[in-house]
Write a structure and sequence with these properties.
By secondary structure, this protein is α/β, with parallel strands linked by helices. It has two domains: 250 residues, Aldolase class I (TIM Barrel); 76 residues, Orthogonal Bundle (Arc Repressor Mutant, subunit A). The chain is built from 15 helices and 15 strands. Helix 1 packs parallel to helix 2 and helix 12 packs antiparallel against helix 13. It is globular, with a radius of gyration of 21 Å. The structure holds iron/sulfur cluster. Iron/sulfur cluster binds next to loops.
Length: 369
């Protein structure tokens, strides 16, 4: 089983904190859609004929494409890939780019999961992030999604925003639980130097992120999601049982996926490749760079991704797939973290607890090959 990722590189405007590849002009939209369809056909053998159980339209802002354009892409994918009847087909949508009608049309095309970038239900937080929607419209869009018949919906929320007090964060979570939605991705605000927000903070024009608030709000998040029956299955992802993201699970479990579109990455178990990022270059003739992964690379990737999940890192898997030397290094390296109460062991699996997940990346680097 494998997944398909489709990168739609257009955004209405650039959010101040955003470090993803996207462009604000959509002048090349029609060319892009055609180039994407061509790439989908050209690369149809990449997954070796495996069944595709997830399709994910990410970006950028996929909901800037018209339903007919998304439909045309889905038709090409269905013609050239073995997309299973029960495949999870997700579309990322920003509240300011959808209407009641477009949501209905997306649903009719076979999109069965929506990922909505809400970020906060408070307008001052949205302004700090320079998002284009307001909280009233966000709530309206959630109603429309329900009316359109979407049963699988996930929201993105951000904590650690300097304007977000703990009380407001609790309120954001309460508003989320009140929607009845079964999946939440909640991210700590990270500010990269080169982003507009990074520069504003450097010049003293915007308040910086306070690390203590981030840690406190992470604690609130973990506690409140647990009280509401959500499972913390990846560092930033929470779901009621049976509602985990199937597509992201492919990444976290190291399964195969093909990424189409500018800057999209692909992975086939032994190598990783990434497409040219510029939209014009991509439309003229897509190209990619490829890196064959060494055993060290594959071990490091496995450790890095698995430690961030509730499935943890399996020493037996390391032993069987990478060798005794790697398993020894890993087990020796994590011992202190078990003693420090950040991690627990279940048979051969080493799993970070909620507190330990805050240190996932640092712990992974310590046990890297
Ligand atoms: S909508 Fe998403 S991808 Fe586009 S600029 Fe904002 S954060 Fe970045």
């Amino acid at each position: 089983m494998a997944g398909l990722y489709i990168h739609i590189p257009f955004c209405k405007s650039k959010c101040a904190y955003c470090n993803f590849f996207s462009v604000v002009s959509d002048k090349q939209r029609a060319d892009f859609v055609e180039a994407l369809k061509k790439e989908a056909v050209d690369r149809k053998d990449y997954l070796g004929g495996e069944e595709v159980r997830t399709v994910y339209f990410g970006g950028g802002t996929p909901s800037l494409l018209k339903p007919a354009e998304i439909g045309g892409i889905i038709d090409v994918l269905r013609q050239h890939y073995k997309i299973t009847a029960a495949a999870e087909i997700t579309l990322e949508a920003n509240p300011d780019t959808v209407s009641k009608d477009t949501l209905k049309e997306y649903k009719e095309l076979g999109i069965n999961r929506l990922s909505i970038g809400i970020q906060s239900f408070f307008d001052d937080d949205l302004q700090y992030l320079s998002r284009k929607h307001d909280s009233k419209h966000a709530l309206q869009v959630l109603e429309w999604a329900k009316a359109a018949g979407f049963q699988e919906v996930t929201l993105d929320l951000i904590y650690g925003i300097p304007t977000l007090t703990d009380e407001k964060w609790c309120r954001n979570l309460e508003l989320f639980f009140a929607t009845g939605i079964n999946h939440l991705s909640a991210y700590a605000l990270t500010v990269e130097e080169k982003t507009a927000l990074g520069q504003r903070i450097a010049k003293g024009l915007a308040a910086p992120v306070n690390e203590d608030s981030v840690i406190r709000q992470y604690g609130i998040l973990v506690e409140m999601t647990r009280q509401h029956g959500f499972e913390h299955y990846e560092i930033s992802n929470f779901a009621r049982p049976g509602h985990y993201s199937k597509h992201n699970t492919i990444y976290w479990k190291g399964e195969k996926y093909l990424g189409l579109g500018p800057s999209a990455h692909s992975y086939d178990g032994v190598s990783r490749q990434w497409n040219v990022a510029g939209v014009k270059d991509y439309c003229d003739s897509y190209s990619f760079e490829k890196e064959k992964l060494t055993l060290d690379d594959r071990y490091n990737e496995y450790v890095m991704t698995s430690l961030r999940t509730c499935w943890g890192c399996d020493a037996e898997y390391i032993r069987n797939n990478f060798g005794e030397k790697y398993a020894e290094k890993f087990e020796k390296g994590v011992k202190n973290h078990i003693l420090a109460g950040k991690m627990f062991q279940q048979d051969q699996k080493y799993i970070l607890n909620d507190h330990g997940m805050l240190f996932a990346d640092g712990i992974a680097v310590e046990v890297f090959a």
